Amino acid sequence: MRRVVITGQGTINALGRDVPTTLNAFREGRCGIGPLELRDVDRLSVKIGGQVKDYDPEALFNRQQIALYDRFTQFTLIAAHQALDGADLNFSGDLAARTGVVLGTAGGGVNTWDENYRSVYEEGKNRVHPFVVPKLMNNAAASHVSMEWNLRGPSFSVATACASSNHAMGLAFQLIRGGGADVMVTGGSEAMLSFGGVKAWEGLRVMSKDACRPFSANRNGMVQGEGAAVFLFEEYEHARSRGADILAEVVGFAMTSDAADIVMPSQQGAARAIIGALKDAKLNPDEVGYINAHGTGTAANDKVECAAVAHAFGAHADDLMISSTKSMHGHLIGGTGAVELLACIMALRDGVIAPTIGYEEPDPECALDVVPNEARDAEVSVVLSNAFAFGGMNAVLALRAAP
């Protein structure tokens, strides 16, 4: 089978508007979660989030583009430009036909829905902009990326709630490994931080009103974030022949379904995904040094994930480092796995393990090395990225240091 490597990365999120700034925030354990700046925020009971502050789309896009690009599409294009601008690839001819796009998002154009519901129901307008449908559809970001760079290979979007990005990146990996493409633009984005988006999540009663504290005994819920991260996945020989800077190698992927409950996670489903990723990568459990956890900061998720890791790794679980960067950038829902992959690459490339910040009290049911509060210098050669979503949809990626 063909090998797959990562040769480009880009991001915009609450921690930074590019990869270097985001990685510095990981190293410093800096928190990007703060008071929300939204219309009607006084009507929300949850008033914090990992918001991209002082964001001005008019400084980056013209009026015609803004009419077509929801906030989640804008974030995707910003991150894609960072990932692709330095790639030195000419997407024409055969390469255009062999390059595709697969991106994850759970909500798609939530801001567009919110704005237009206001127009119709609150303001009583009888017409909306003719581009509302193409602006809000979940595949809008993938479509605009394909058009921007003339990418004519397999292109589509994946929506599996909080696992959307990991599913998207896993499918991109499989497409290249199986010969369906040579290059894939992949990752995910989300922009649910609107009045309607936050109000809907409030109804689930899983949101914290003060902070995200994964694995800490006094945790009280998740905190939403927004943003995007986009990567260039490439067939190894193709990347090597052009002298590309290889950031990491993707070596395994597995996905499972709990088939149990629409919101409560399953230890068995999560463990099967972890074990499946190791098997797909032909890795022994003791080769893994770090796991970027799903780690939402809810009691149900954190305890189930720790139990699943303990089951999958046995005695080696005590030697693993496992951290949740959601404590810093918030939970980007469908885009979260993509931003978290940046921390995985940092661990492999720079030997820096991002911390779980906000950790205050040990939890006996989460008795693993959660890298509390401060980043750690450590050499690791293999890492995993976990994503476990509502609906019981699990996706785990395995990465190895660059060959």
Characterise this structure.
The chain is an alpha/beta fold and 403 residues long. The chain has 2 domains: 4-241, Peroxisomal Thiolase, Chain A, domain 1, CATH 3.40.47.10; 254-400, Peroxisomal Thiolase, Chain A, domain 1. Helices cover 35% and strands 19% of the residues. The chain is built from 14 helices and 14 strands. The strands form 3 sheets. A 10-stranded mixed beta sheet has the order 5-4-6-7-1-8-14-13-9-10, with helices on both faces. A hairpin with a 3-residue loop joins β13 and β14 (393-401). α3 (71-85) packs parallel to α7 (140-149) and α11 crosses α12. The longest helix has 15 residues, at 71-85. The two termini are 16 Å apart.
Note the topology.
Layout: E1 4-13, H1 19-28, E2 34-35, E3 48-49, H2 63-68, H3 71-85, H4 93-97, E4 99-104, H5 110-122, H6 132-136, H7 140-149, E5 155-158, H8 164-177, E6 183-190, H9 195-202, E7 227-235, H10 236-241, E8 248-257, H11 267-281, E9 290-292, H12 299-313, E10 321-323, H13 326-329, H14 336-350, E11 352-353, E12 376-377, E13 382-389, E14 393-401
Parallel strand pairs: 4-5, 4-6, 9-10, 9-13
Antiparallel strand pairs: 1-7, 1-8, 2-3, 6-7, 8-14, 11-12, 13-14
